[in-house]
Amino acid sequence: MSILVFAESSEGKFKKVALEVTSYGKKLAEQLDTNLVVVSAFAENTDPLAKHGAERILMGNSDALKTSDVAIWADFIVAAANQENAEVVIIDSSSNGAYVAPLVAAKLQAGFTSNVVALPLSTSPFVVKRNAFSTKAFSKTEIKTSKKVIGLAKNSFGLFESPVQSNVEDFSPDLGVGKIKRTSVDKATDEVSIADAEIIVAGGRGLKSGDNWGMIEDLAEVLGAAKACSKPVSDLGWRPHTEHVGQTGKQAATNLYIAIGISGAIQHLAGVNSSKVKVVINTDEEAPFFKAAEYGIVGDAFEIVPKLVEKLKEFKAENG
Amino acid sequence: MKILVCISSVPDTTSKINFTDNDTKFDTNGVQFVINPHDEYSLTRAMWFKEKQGASLTVVSVGNQSVETTLRKALAIGADDAIRINAEATDGYFVAQQLAAVVKNGNYDLVIAGRESIDYNGGMVPGMLATLLNYNFVNAVTGIEITENKAVVTREIDGGKEVLETELPLVVGSQKGIVREEELRIPNMRGIMMARKKPLNVAEPISAEAATEAQNFEKPAVKSACKMVDNVDELIDLLHNEAKVI
Lengths: 320, 246
Ligand SMILES: Cc1cc2nc3c(=O)[nH]c(=O)nc-3n(C[C@H](O)[C@H](O)[C@H](O)COP(=O)(O)OP(=O)(O)OC[C@H]3O[C@@H](n4cnc5c(N)ncnc54)[C@H](O)[C@@H]3O)c2cc1C
Ligand SMILES: Nc1ncnc2c1ncn2[C@@H]1O[C@H](COP(=O)(O)O)[C@@H](O)[C@H]1O
Description:
Strand content of chain B: 25-35%
Structural class of chain B: alpha/beta
Radius of gyration of chain B: 21 Å
Largest interface: A-B, 93 and 77 residues
Number of domains of chain A: 2
Number of strands of chain B: 15
Mean pLDDT of chain A: 96
Number of helices of chain B: 6
Strand order of the largest sheet of chain B: 11-10-9-12-8-1-6-7-13
CATH topology of chain B: Rossmann fold
Helix content of chain A: 25-40%
Strand order of the largest sheet of chain A: 7-11-6-1-4-5-12
Oligomer: heterodimer
CATH class of chain B: Alpha Beta
CATH architecture of the largest domain in chain A: 3-Layer(aba) Sandwich
Helix content of chain B: 25-40%
Structural class of chain A: alpha/beta
Largest sheet of chain A: 7 strands, parallel
Distance between the termini of chain B: 54 Å
Shape of chain B: globular
Number of strands of chain A: 18
Strand content of chain A: 25-35%
Number of helices of chain A: 9
Bound molecules: flavin-adenine dinucleotide, adenosine monophosphate
Order of helices and strands of chain B: EEEEEHEHEHEHEEEEHEEEH
Mean pLDDT of chain B: 96
């Protein structure tokens, strides 16, 4: 028996989500009195995993994994689960994590719950708490199969250090050849993505035109934040679809979400409920977003935002 | 080309979410059910294949009789026929197994499901379905073109997009972006009249076990009131000293 965590690397390094699933796996292994095994690929430095409790790390390096066919990645994780006789497999909710997890579950004939926000409420029966109804509610869901796959919601559990000496083993199961080829990729490398962001600055239709995004960009830049927008803003073509947050767009599970000129429609809020601190800047004191926010300023974004940028620059200069 | 679009019938996006029976059941009182938004985009894209490339277009939903209203809407938009699998859709794995049986029976070349349903938010049916069928699978799809057996698929990734090439048979998990907003179709009178005559076949489920079961629900704790702030200095101070997020 063991708990298996898939720790995704990107360009050889671990992102925060990888450490979050490892932290979760470590605590779950303690709860179930069993061992934690982490499976990963192409990572050079495994110290961050060791710091979060990964005693054994199975590391894939084979060319077979240099594929865009998710089914091969699923086979890779399943091979690790079988070798380690894993009772629970834990996978993050990044775009790759959410992509591969259902495949792993189907291959293992395991029950799968995504969007899990905490350690199991009980392990026998095995009951987890998950987001449902676009974060408008939680559901306590029992996983009834003997093997289980958990998709952990981003930024829901946090990071816990429990340093260990880790043992890294080469892991090269036989994998087939992918049937999906990548022909091109278009990725903004100099910008923080919504998925990775600790802070998001979002603009709505209140900003009147895509030409007014300069101040949103400035604010995002001082804060090291990702930029986001409401649905109409992307439908109008002011901003790309990839920035749209909400029920039909991205989930923003950040520490700070600053909403500027966004009313706070229920569909938009469904994408930001998982953010810890929400700040609203809006001319209309009746805007529904204020009810969902921690801090609010009633006022004109065109006056407030440039001031905020200026003051934040001073603040950053003083506080480093 | 035979296309199957998987339709999940979900509470309208503006719905207030409440529960009954000791918080064990979703309260459908006063709730209107609609085609899951991602499925509506899928259906619109599938209509393009039907009209421009002569594809046949079937829609399917696993659910009790109440989902027929949603399926009729899909027929009114333009699907050729509809299938309802007569079972409660309580678990993604169960649903995927039912859908897999439908796909095998009908030999569909392209199966379009949504990236996730807005009620259950499982994001699990498309990937499980592809695995059960051993079909190629691409998720988070925002564009798809088909020429003969070849599919060129655009997929959203963290911070951008990638273009992939693969072959039919194929399952995609599609999402907003696969068609433009203004291309979405509202069923007109003629479509609604025609939909009444189109076949809506009801099939009994194959035997399969649910792997998970929702025991009960809980609404997030009522949050404390928003702190109204007068100026940006005060805001920065609060974010730094109180919320500790900057
Ligand atoms: C669920 C899932 C999880 C994933 N997790 C990870 C992960 O944890 N870590 C990870 O790295 N990837 C991961 N991926 C895979 C990722 O999406 C890419 O497919 C993969 O990383 C591609 O590897 P690559 O960049 O090396 O290959 P490619 O994108 O195919 O690029 C290879 C590059 O090498 C160049 N090249 C070729 N030959 C030479 C040469 N002789 N000299 C110099 N350059 C050369 C090529 O021009 C090309 O730019 C995951 C994918 C999925 C679906
Ligand atoms: N009961 C169902 N019947 C048919 N298709 C479904 C059903 N539930 C989910 N799907 C499909 O799977 C997608 C993802 O749903 P889910 O895995 O529940 O998030 C939906 O957008 C639908 O295309």
